[in-house]
Design goal:
The complex is a heterodimer.
Chain A (H helix, E strand, L loop, with lengths): L2 H19 L1 H23 L7 H36 L3 H5 L5 H34 L2 H7 L2 H28 L3 H12 L4 H7 L7 H25 L2 H6 L3 H8 L2
Chain B lengths: L6 E3 L6 E3 L2 H20 L2 H22 L16 H13 L11 H12 L3 H9 L2 E12 L2 E12 L3 E5 L6 H8 L7 E6 L2 E2 L5 H7 E4 L11 H11 L6 H10 L15 H13 L5 E5 L7 H16 L3 E6 L2 H7 L2 E6 L1 E6 L1 H8 L2 E7 L6 H6 L4 E6 L5 E5 L2 H14 L4 E6 L4 H17 L1
The chains are: A mainly alpha, B alpha/beta.
Chain lengths: 253, 441
Amino acid sequence: MNQSAIRIRAVMRKEFQEYRRNRFIIYTMGTLPLIFTALPVISLFSISNSTPPSVVRTQVAITLLLLLVIPVVLPATIAAYSVIGERDQGTLEPLLTTPISREEFLLGKSLAATIPTVGVAYVFFIVLVVAIRLGASSVVAHAVWQPSWFLAELLFAPLLAAWSVWVGTAISARSSDVRVAQQLGTLASLPALVLPLLMSLQVFKPTATVAVVIAVALAVIDVGAWRIVSKMFDRERLITGASAVTMRAEAGT
Amino acid sequence: MVKRQWFARRRHGFGARPTTWQGWLITAIAVAGAIGALAGAKKTTGEILLVGIVGLYLALAYSLGGAKKLVDTTERGVESDDDHALENAIAKVSLPPAIYGSQSPREIAEAIVSHTGKFADATEDAVMSDSVIVVEHLTKQFGPRVAFEDVSFSVRRGEVFGFLGPNGAGKTSTVRTLSTLVTPTSGTAEVAGIALTGKHDIEIRQRIAVMTEVPGLYLRLSVTENLVFFAGLYGYRDAQPRIDRALEAVNLTSRASDLCGSLSKGLRQRVGLARALLNDPEIVFLDEPTSGLDPVASLEVHNLIIALRDKGVTVFLTTHRLDEAEKLCDRVAILNTTLRTVGRIDDLRRKMFQKSILVSTAAPLANPEGLFSSIESVANWSTDDTGGYVLTVSDVRVAAPAITRALVAAGADVLSLAEGHHSLEEVYLELVGAAGKGSEQ
């Protein structure tokens, strides 16, 4: 294992240790997905075989879209805390005086936020589809058990989570208050749901090809966001509140 | 190499989890198989298949999970090649001159004296060539505000270098600049033999350690977990021996598993120092290390600094506490946006203050003016707060016998006669001036 991987793993492990000791994060990860999925799931189970297919499709699409809110909202909250949280507890400066590069730091932080939230999203998805297969009416089971929905969940969850992480990290790096960062981070991450929403509302026909195309679009957006956030991560600005480039310009040197 | 189990069973309760890629692969196949069974088969057949797959998976996980044990979350590697690679890389980048080896500046000086018979000049030249920090005309501006300006000094290998100044003088900004956190506006600097150009920041950070005024620990993590994290940031995989050494150095071995949030401020400061020792740094920057500590905790930190110096580590110490600087520092620099002076404390005293002799008598002298003005080596005199006399002299060794003779001849009852001593505080106040005093308050 090279040193870069060791550093990234060190950041991830530390983040996981902090999550485990922070009940707020544990409760959020557990309850938020429940809130998002409980009501739509109940309505899915109340659908009978005599319900018109269009109603079933709409209800299924809404439920699956709400499942995709989990990998958007959860990492945004965690990522929004990632930089400003370190600054607030006075750990950012000691951390930045070590040989870790900004890419390693950001990657470690983002993976630590992405992996558990995508895991939670997958678990909820699996539990839901299995429950539907076992307990819901056959029309609902047929509508849910489509390769396109499985592919969409499999691809969209990590890509949407990555987007949320970059947006949350960018806001965290520029904010001066944790609460503001978390609220802004959650809000700013929501636009990424537009593409899956169009698929859910059947603006595009929900096929596997459409899912792949949307996934590629999301991946492009993620790469762009990663590049922007990397450039925004300026050690000097994080420590002193102003970037070296700006200060040189102001000082006229 | 120790072979790891594919799964790990928990000591308490029900459950096992994959711990290796093989375990994760089996888990992924099981999940995919379960979904496939439900999706591809008829309802009843699918459900039977699902139960079968889940049962098979659990049986596999338990049979491959070994004995019941806690899941190992520390995952300490058994390979330590990375450590050796790192140390070799560091050694290649900068080696101290062979002639000096691991000798302290004092040993080098003594060696030179034995060959040349000259001490001060030779030592100065020799040790200057072994500087680990060289700063030339360094300036840092934050927009229109000047943090520090045109600062030049050098720090020698193995010395404790005091960096003094009032609040807002630019001390912390200087430390942040030298530790590559902020970019200088102009000027040049070398840290651990590497130019501060922005291109080799990671190499510099690999060879230094910084302890900020606030230790900056993760309060929800234990002492060991904090140190494991920072050792990871330095790229050490098997860091436990380093962590043990660092904890032993700061006498914290018995508190290794305590949460940092439960430690006193003094103990947290010691954890911060242990963290600074993890990478065996060439230079340790200590920013106000005893700020807010009680006398006992401060003394412990002082002893640790002395121990660092004894190990040959260069210590760059910023402090407000002049008694601390006087006790610990080989040389000091006084900064108040611009550098006011740099040198040994004794040299500064000699440069800044005239030599004096303090005379104390049982009763006031009848005619002190007549008595002292008649002594050739006394330039000036005055009385002090205690009723004694302060005589300014050019050479203490010449003046002291003459003064003694004159006092005895005048029939004075002399209680004491001693060389005047100026504290670092007097030097500091003289250089920093009223502005410094005001801002400190």
